[in-house]
């Protein structure tokens, strides 16, 4: 197909390319038929090429099939008939070939409409493909072709049984062409979903040729050794690999049988080719089924892995959300009491192990209940949020700010001396005092804060004692008139 790609730039070039493809397959089938004893139509790759022409070319594909069939059959008919009758018969036989390709295309498209995705992507579709695409079209059209040949006097003097046997081989030959080339088209159509055949290891090709040569030249039963190679190919390279291998195996088997070589040679020629057809069908059906099953398993595994990854990411996000809900105050977005205590305890242990100053501030919004009573709880929530934002903006990244409960907040100042802590507390007080909240009712709410401060001492054996001293300082600030900072030493 890569060689035909430059010719497929326009619809007319595509039609020409499909005609060339049909003619090549047709002459290849004619050559195999001449090699066979009788001659018997063992494999008709032109039937499979006709299906490909209609699937790729649409309406122009019909012209490609008809014209290609005329080109293939006219030279043979011209040797047996006059030119005008030969042209007429070639045109009629080409119509039969086009009708066969049309019926195969209908079976293909109907199957796709029934399964609602491209055909030959799942193993359960293989039996439907064999029956409706590969078998029924030859069964309906080849009797017409045989009838036309008999009317033209080219049927020979065959008896009833001979005619039935010839028709059976004719139907099986066309069905084999469809059965062998249909998966090749499906593999090319889905080439992005399969491994590239160019990566096929050289040893596989050498082993395949060696097994066939041994089966046809040395010991015929060694042909069974080709099955393990085909199984590996089906697993590693899927439908494209098995389709190509089955075409090569079919051509080699027919050629060897026609030369009297291999496991199918000997005895009645017709029976030999019938056994060969059964072998090719059973082997191809098994390999195609295995390839499609392997592809289905890989898709299920990829889908399962993607689902596991998605659920893992969702679980991770949920855990992160739960962790956030467990450590963050839902209203204000600052740390809650439990998370603040955990971080403060860690800082206290650090300050004890590597002696460093540390202070705790306890902040309370003044007359907060009055805001709720006069303006509603929504105004109170706005006041809490505004106070948190103002304090967070005034603190360092290393400081810990959290909601202690209600309108009370706690601040941990690591590596901060008592004098520096006083300045930080005063900065927080001023930031809160500068808050001005405009409500929808037109009212303006202003808030202030009282702050109690305590610095770490040698006798502070735990965090609870340090917080208690800061809390006592806060109560003194409230009794002292509010909107002020009081140190646990009594200084304001």
TrEMBL record:
Gene3D superfamilies: 3.30.70.270
EC number: 2.7.7.65
SUPFAM superfamilies the UniProt entry points to: Nucleotide cyclase
Domain GGDEF: 356-490
Top EC group: transferase
Catalytic reactions of this protein: 2 GTP = 3',3'-c-di-GMP + 2 diphosphate
Keyword Amino-acid biosynthesis: no
Keywords for this protein: Membrane, Transmembrane, Transmembrane helix
Annotated transmembrane regions: 12-30, 36-56, 63-81, 87-108, 129-152, 164-188, 200-217, 273-293
Source species, domain of life: Bacteria
Entry-linked NCBIfam families: GGDEF
Protein name: diguanylate cyclase
């Amino acid at each position: 197909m890569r060689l035909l790609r430059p010719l497929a730039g326009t619809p007319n070039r595509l039609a020409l390319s499909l005609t060339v493809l049909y003619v090549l397959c047709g002459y290849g089938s004619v050559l195999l038929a001449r090699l066979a004893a009788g001659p018997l139509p063992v494999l008709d790759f032109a039937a499979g090429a006709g299906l490909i022409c209609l699937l790729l070319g649409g309406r122009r594909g019909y012209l490609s099939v008809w014209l290609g069939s005329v080109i293939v059959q006219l030279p043979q008919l011209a040797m047996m008939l006059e030119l005008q009758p030969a042209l007429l018969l070639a045109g009629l036989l080409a119509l039969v070939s086009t009708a066969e390709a049309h019926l195969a295309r209908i079976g293909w498209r109907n199957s796709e409409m029934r399964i609602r995705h491209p055909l030959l992507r799942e193993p359960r579709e293989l039996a439907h493909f064999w029956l409706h695409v590969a078998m029924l079209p030859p069964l309906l059209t080849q009797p017409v072709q045989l009838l036309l040949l008999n009317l033209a006097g080219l049927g020979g003097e065959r008896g009833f049984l001979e005619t039935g046997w010839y028709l059976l081989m004719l139907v099986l030959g066309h069905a084999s062409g469809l059965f062998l080339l249909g998966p090749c088209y499906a593999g090319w159509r889905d080439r992005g979903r399969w491994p590239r055949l160019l990566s096929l290891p050289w040893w596989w090709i050498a082993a395949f040729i060696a097994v066939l040569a041994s089966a046809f030249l040395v010991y015929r039963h060694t042909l069974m050794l080709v099955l393990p190679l085909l199984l590996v190919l089906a697993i590693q390279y899927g439908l494209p690999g098995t389709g190509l291998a089955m075409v090569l195996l079919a051509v080699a088997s027919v050629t060897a049988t026609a030369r009297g070589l291999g496991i199918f040679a000997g005895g009645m020629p017709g029976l030999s080719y019938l056994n060969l057809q059964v072998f090719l069908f059973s082997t191809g059906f098994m390999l195609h089924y295995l390839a499609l099953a392997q592809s289905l398993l890989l898709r299920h595994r990829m889908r399962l892995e993607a689902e596991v990854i998605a659920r893992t990411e969702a679980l991770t996000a949920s855990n992160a959300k739960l962790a956030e809900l467990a450590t963050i105050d839902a209203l204000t977005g600052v740390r809650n009491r439990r998370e603040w205590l955990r971080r403060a305890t860690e800082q206290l242990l650090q300050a004890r192990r590597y002696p460093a100053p540390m202070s705790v501030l306890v902040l309370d919004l003044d007359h907060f209940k009055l805001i709720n009573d006069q303006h509603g709880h929504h105004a109170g929530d706005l006041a809490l949020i505004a106070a948190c934002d103002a304090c967070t903006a005034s603190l360092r990244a290393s400081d810990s700010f959290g909601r202690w409960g209600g309108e009370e907040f706690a601040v941990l100042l690591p590596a901060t001396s008592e004098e520096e802590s006083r300045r930080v507390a005063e900065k927080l007080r001023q930031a809160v005092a500068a808050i001005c909240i405009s409500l929808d009712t037109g009212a303006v709410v202003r808030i202030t804060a009282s702050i109690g401060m305590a610095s770490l001492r040698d006798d502070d054996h735990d965090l609870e004692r340090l917080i208690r001293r800061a809390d006592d300082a806060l109560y003194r600030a409230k009794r002292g008139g509010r909107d002020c900072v009081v140190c646990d030493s009594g200084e304001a």
